[in-house]
C-alpha cells in the first residue's frame, strides 16, 4: 500500500495579487475621473507588486498542510438507462445512413462534363465566335499569362490549348462529380435542387467575383448568362446520374469497436440487451 504523508508543502496564501489588481484598476479609473485616483492606484499597485515579489523571490514561501484521507466510491443506484415514455429507444446514427460509391461520382462527373462541353460548343457556334471559343476561355482563365495571346486568337483551334484544356476539363468534372457523390446523400429527397441549381449558382457566383480581379481581360469575353446555364446543365445531369446509382448502406448499427477491428463480444452483447429493453 502506498505511504501517504501526514502533511504536504503548498504555496503560502497571499493577498498581494489582489492589492496589485485593485491598484491597476484605480490607475485606469483615474484616467476618466480624477488624477488623485490614479495616484492612489499607482501606490497600491507598487505596494502590491513589492509585497508579492518578496513572497516569491528569491525563495517561494511555503507552508505545511495536513493531508485528509478520503475514500471516494463512484457508484449509481440506477441499473438501467432511463427512457422517455412513449418513445422507442433507438441507437444513435451517423448521417447519412446510405452513401454513394466513388464510381457514382465518377460517372456523374463524366456525364456532366460531356453535357457542359456540348453546351459550350453550341454557344460558340450560335454566337459566331467559333466552336473552340469556350476552350480558349478555359485555358486563358486558368493561365493568366496566356490571356494576351489567347485574346488575339480566341475561337480558333490550337493543338497546344486543346491538349491543355481537355485534361483540365476532365479533372474538374471528376472532382465536382465526386463532390456531388459526397453531398447528395445529405439531401436525398432533393438531389436535382442541390446538384442542379444551388451548387452551380454558388460556384458561378464565386467565379464571377474572383475572375474580375484574377483575369479581367478574359472576364470581358465571358457571356455569364450562358456560363450559368452550362453550369446548371452540368449540375442537373451530374446530379441525376449520381442519384440513380445504387447506394451503399453505412455500418450504422455496428458498434465502433467492431468497425475499428477490436473484438469485444461482451460489450456487443451488453449493447444488444440494452436495445431490447
Describe this entry's structure for a reader:
This protein has 11 helices and 4 strands; from the N terminus they run βααββαααααααβαα. The protein has 3 domains: 58 residues, Orthogonal Bundle (Helix Hairpins), CATH 1.10.287; 149 residues, no CATH class; 28 residues, no CATH class. A two-stranded antiparallel sheet has the order 1-2. By secondary structure, it is mainly alpha-helical.
Order of SSEs, N→C? EHHEEHHHHHHHEHH
Q: What is the β-strand count?
A: 4
Strand fraction: 5-15%
- The secondary structure category is mainly alpha
Helix content: 55-70%
Evaluate the radius of gyration. Answer: 35 Å
Number of domains: 3
Mean pLDDT: 78
Report the span from N to C terminus: 42 Å
List low-confidence stretches.
263-271
Oligomer: single chain
Short key terms for the protein model shown above:
two-stranded antiparallel ribbon, 4 strands, 3 domains, Helix Hairpins, 11 helices, 277 residues, mainly alpha, 5% strand
Task: Give a brief rundown of this model.
The chain is mostly helical and 277 residues long. The protein has helices at 16-29, 35-56, 102-127, 133-142, 147-152, 159-183, 191-214, 216-219, 224-243, 256-259, 265-276; strands spanning 7-11, 62-66, 98-99, 248-249.
Amino acid at each position: 500500500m502506498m505511504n501517504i504523508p501526514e502533511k504536504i508543502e503548498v504555496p503560502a496564501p497571499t493577498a498581494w495579487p489582489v492589492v496589485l489588481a485593485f491598484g491597476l484598476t484605480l490607475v485606469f479609473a483615474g484616467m476618466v475621473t480624477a488624477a488623485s485616483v490614479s495616484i492612489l492606484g499607482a501606490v497600491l499597485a507598487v505596494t502590491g507588486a513589492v509585497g508579492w515579489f518578496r513572497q516569491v523571490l528569491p525563495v517561494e514561501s511555503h507552508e505545511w498542510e495536513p493531508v485528509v484521507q478520503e475514500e471516494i466510491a463512484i457508484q449509481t443506484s440506477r441499473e438501467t438507462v432511463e427512457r422517455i415514455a412513449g418513445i422507442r429507444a433507438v441507437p444513435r446514427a451517423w448521417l447519412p445512413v446510405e452513401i454513394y460509391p466513388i464510381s457514382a461520382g465518377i460517372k456523374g462527373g463524366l456525364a456532366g462534363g460531356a453535357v457542359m462541353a456540348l453546351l459550350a460548343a453550341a454557344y460558340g457556334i450560335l454566337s459566331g465566335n467559333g466552336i473552340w471559343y469556350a476552350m480558349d476561355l478555359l485555358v486563358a482563365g486558368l493561365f493568366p499569362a496566356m490571356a494576351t495571346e489567347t485574346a488575339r486568337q480566341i475561337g480558333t483551334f490550337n493543338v497546344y490549348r486543346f491538349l491543355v484544356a481537355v485534361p483540365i476539363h476532365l479533372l474538374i468534372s471528376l472532382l465536382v462529380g465526386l463532390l456531388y457523390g459526397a453531398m447528395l446523400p445529405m439531401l436525398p429527397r432533393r438531389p436535382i435542387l442541390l446538384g442542379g441549381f444551388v451548387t452551380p449558382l454558388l460556384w458561378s457566383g464565386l467565379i464571377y467575383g474572383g475572375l474580375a480581379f484574377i483575369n479581367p481581360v478574359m472576364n470581358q469575353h465571358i457571356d455569364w448568362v450562358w456560363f450559368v446555364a452550362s453550369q446548371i446543365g452540368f449540375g442537373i445531369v451530374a446530379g441525376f446520374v449520381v442519384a440513380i446509382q445504387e447506394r451503399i448502406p453505412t455500418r450504422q448499427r455496428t458498434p465502433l469497436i467492431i468497425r475499428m477491428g477490436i473484438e469485444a463480444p461482451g460489450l456487443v452483447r451488453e449493447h444488444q440487451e440494452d436495445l431490447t429493453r
